[in-house]
Amino acid sequence: MATVIREAPETVNPLDVSRAELWREDRWQEPMRRLRAESPIHYCEDSKFGPYWSVTTYKPIQHVEALPKIFSSSWEYGGITVAGDGVEHLQEGEVPMPMFIAMDPPQHTAQRRTVAPAFGPSETERMRADTLKRTSDVLDSLPVGEPFDWVEKLSIELTTQMLAILFDFPWEERHKLTAWSDALGDIESFNTAEERQQRLAIAYEMGAAFKELWDRKAQNPGQHDLISIMLQSDAMSHMSHEEFMGNLILLIVGGNDTTRNSMSAYAYGLHQFPEERAKLEANHDPDLAVNAMHEILRWQTPLAHMRRTATEDTELFGHQIRKRDKIALWYASANRDESVFPDGDRIIVDRENARRHLAFGYGIHRCVGARVAELQLTALISEMQKRRLRVNVLAEPERVNACFVHGYRHMQVELERY
């Protein structure tokens, strides 16, 4: 995905919700609420990323996602974030890295079909006992009554372990996966030629490590890991180096950031709503834990938006969309759409329709690893309940400075028993 970073507008547009500071400072809710009320399909004429349409309510987002021929995800047009500008606008230090989430059918269909079984019901069930065991081990390693960084000690550790297992990546080097995810999922890392070169160097470092793993698996394939699955598929066994790196970025960022930031939201969100935390503390029914998991995903929405590009002139609920217009689908806003989720700014762990969230997207691009993410977050909730552990947040977290990955860098907490 090529990215043209423009001069920041001289005057701040309060309805330009792509501004990184809104997300870093957790101030995105009010402009999104205003957009939903006044202009749910809104044309932002000027932003750091150029002009784009904001779609902020539930039904229009589903509508766009259901029409992939008209609203493309292709990397050639700019891909899946509002930052991209297509292959004709490549900047110095950029190399296109196609990934199946940033492809349209039939290429998307074939590559997604290759990796989907690794995240299916039977594979998720196969991972359940190990996921619970690893969650237990990490929780038992944490201090009670002493401050520590929840993001570093729990969220990153558990998600990085899962990524290493999914790829059969060398266990002692697993924290490289987190570093690569943080760097390559950052849409604010394109501002200068130097930053783009640094990002490209990290991508090649990751590619070299996985090429070594690929070559080992070609000689001795495994049964369940993603590299072996790709190797044995017609759709992915002959990928170009750039496509290989693109799909690695997708699977690493998708597998790391969504689960990691939901686990952090479990701690932060329930601290904000102690009456809802009390429901989970009083009732250890597994069904309530599952519902709470969906509600936390809805409330956090770990990827704030996905972007589509119009392939033709079209109309969207009375608005004239031009060919090659950018459309930002703000999942974070749709998941607080008052017409679907009343009192949506609150976590309500027994919310009746929590499962209707769009945190994993909708349509053909719905997150392929959703079941594994759900397993990990539910395991955390249930294992915390078993230990009668409560997380108290000691200070406002440091958040990701971007409008794509919606998450937490650091968060000081203290555990207590109840």
UniProtKB/TrEMBL annotation:
Name under which the protein is recorded: Cytochrome P450
Lineage start: Bacteria, Pseudomonadati, Pseudomonadota, Alphaproteobacteria, Sphingomonadales
EC top class named in words: oxidoreductase
InterPro entries xrefs: Cyt_P450, Cyt_P450_B, Cyt_P450_CS, Cyt_P450_sf
Matching Gene3D superfamilies: Cytochrome P450
Enzyme Commission number(s) of this protein: 1.14.15.3
UniProt xrefs under Pfam families: p450
Alphabetized GO MF terms: heme binding; iron ion binding; monooxygenase activity; oxidoreductase activity, acting on paired donors, with incorporation or reduction of molecular oxygen
Organism: Sphingopyxis granuli
Entry keyword set: Heme, Iron, Metal-binding, Monooxygenase, Oxidoreductase
Coiled coil feature spans: none
Protein family: Belongs to the cytochrome P450 family.
Gene transcribed to yield this protein: ahpG3
Top-level taxonomic group: Bacteria
